[in-house]
Amino acid sequence: MKIKPSLFFLLALAACGKSEPPAVEPPPAPVKKTSYTNPVFTPVMADPSVLRDPASGYFFVFGTEDFWGPGQGTKLVPIARSENLVDWVYIRDAFSTKPGWKADGGIWAPDPAYVNGQYYLYYSYSVWADSNPGIGLATSLRPEGPYTDLGKLFMSSEMGVPNAIDPFYMEDGGQKYLFFGSYSSAANNGTWGVPLAADGKSVPDKNAKFKIAAGDFEGVIIEKRNDYYYFFGSKNNCCDGAASVYQVRVGRSRALRGPYIDKEGKEITQRGSGSLLIARNDKIAGPGHNARIITDDAGTDWFIYHGIEVANPMIPNGPNRRALFLDKLTWQDGWPVIAGGTPSTTAQPVPVFNKKN
C-alpha cells in the first residue's frame, strides 16, 4: 500500500520529535569500610562462639539464649552472619523450640563446629546455680541451621563434675575432644576435657576425663599456636551490669592435656592463677567468654568476646546487655596481648578479608 505524501510527512515529523531516554547512571560503588568502633553487634550476643563456613567464607556467630527487649522477645540461641567480623546481621535462632531432654533451663554458651561434613552445635542446658546441668548436641547441614537436636550428651552427675557447662569442641592428633566446666568450689571442680567417639556424638568412657583448670575459670577456649596450646578462660561475675568485673586470663602448655602454666609459672589448676589478658575499663564492663581466635587474610589475629557498655548496661526488664566486641590480638614473647589490656573504645582498622574461602 502506498502512503500518501501528507501522511508520510506527519510520520517523519513524529519520528524526528522522538528522543532517546537518558542513560541511567550506575549506582556508586559502596564505600569500603576502613574502621569500626565497638560494640560490633547489639543488643545481645552473650558467650559468643564463631564458625567460618568453609564453603561460603561467611562467619556465623552463635550466642546464649537471651531476651533482646520489648518487641524482640527471647532468642533461642541467636545466629548472626558477617563477611568481615564487623558488620553482622541477625539471621535466625538455632532452635525453633527448646530441647526437651531437661525440664528447666536455658540454652547457654553454644559451640559450633564443622564435623564429619556437618555442622555440630554443642550447648549447655542449665538454670542459674543448677545442681545438675548438662550438655547437649544438635546438628544441621547448613551453618545457619535450623538445628536438629540429638539430645543429651551427658549430665553433670554422669560426669562426676559439678557445673558441667560451657562446652568447647577440639580435634587434636586425630582425636575429638570436648572441654567443659564452670565455677564451683565443690570437689572435682574445674575445667575438664574428655575424648569423644569418632562421630563426635557420644562419650565412650566418662572416666577418661582429665582436668586442665581450677574451678574459678569458665568459658574455656584452647588455641594451638606453634609449639604451645593456649588456654583462654574467663573469671569473676559475668552478669553484674555496669559493675561486672568479668575478665579473661590465659595459660599455656606444650601438651593438650596440660599442665597449663601462666606467666608467673603457676599451674592453672590452682585457684587464683592465669595471666590477665583483658579486663574492664571505665566505658566497658565485664569483657569475657571469648570465641575462637580468627586470623584474617593479612595474618592478623582477632579476639571476639562479649562486653557490657557502662552507659547502657541492661535490657529493659531483662538481662545484662552483653553485646559483641572485637579487638586485635598480638603476640609478645610467646603470649597473647590485647592493646592496653582492655576493650577498645575508639575507631580501629577493620580486619582484612579479600576473598571467600
Could you explain how this protein is built, in words?
The structure is a single chain. The chain has 357 residues and is mainly beta. The protein has one domain: Tachylectin-2, Chain A. The protein contains two helices and 25 strands. It has helices spanning 5-17, 156-159, and strands at 35-36, 49-52, 59-62, 66-67, 74-75, 78-82, 89-93, 106-115, 118-126, 134-140, 148-155, 168-172, 175-180, 191-195, 210-213, 218-225, 228-235, 247-253, 275-278, 284-288, 294-295, 301-309, 322-332, 335-338, 348-349. Strands 20, 21, 22, 23 and 24 form a five-stranded antiparallel β-sheet that branches. Strands 2-3-6-7 form a four-stranded antiparallel β-sheet, with no helix packed on it. Strands 8-9-10-11 form a four-stranded antiparallel β-sheet. The longest helix is centred in the first third of the chain and has 13 residues, at 5-17. The chain is globular. Mean pLDDT is 92; it is low at 1-19.
Helix fraction, binned, reads: under 10%
Describe the biggest sheet?
5 strands, antiparallel
CATH third-tier fold name: Tachylectin-2, Chain A
Give the name of the CATH architecture.
Answer: 5 Propeller
Task: Report Rg.
Answer: 26 Å
Shape: globular
In DSSP terms, counting alpha (H) and pi (I) runs of 4 or more, how many helices?
Answer: 2
- Mind telling me the CATH superfamily name? Glycosyl hydrolase domain, family 43
The total strand number stands at 25
Contiguous runs where pLDDT drops below 50 for at least 5 residues: 1-19
Instruction: Estimate the mean pLDDT confidence.
Output: 92
The CATH first-level class comes to Mainly Beta
Domains counted in the coordinates: how many? 1
**Class from helix and strand fractions:** mainly beta
GO molecular function, one term: hydrolase activity, hydrolyzing O-glycosyl compounds
Organism: Pedobacter yulinensis
Active site: 47, 218
Signal peptide: 1-17
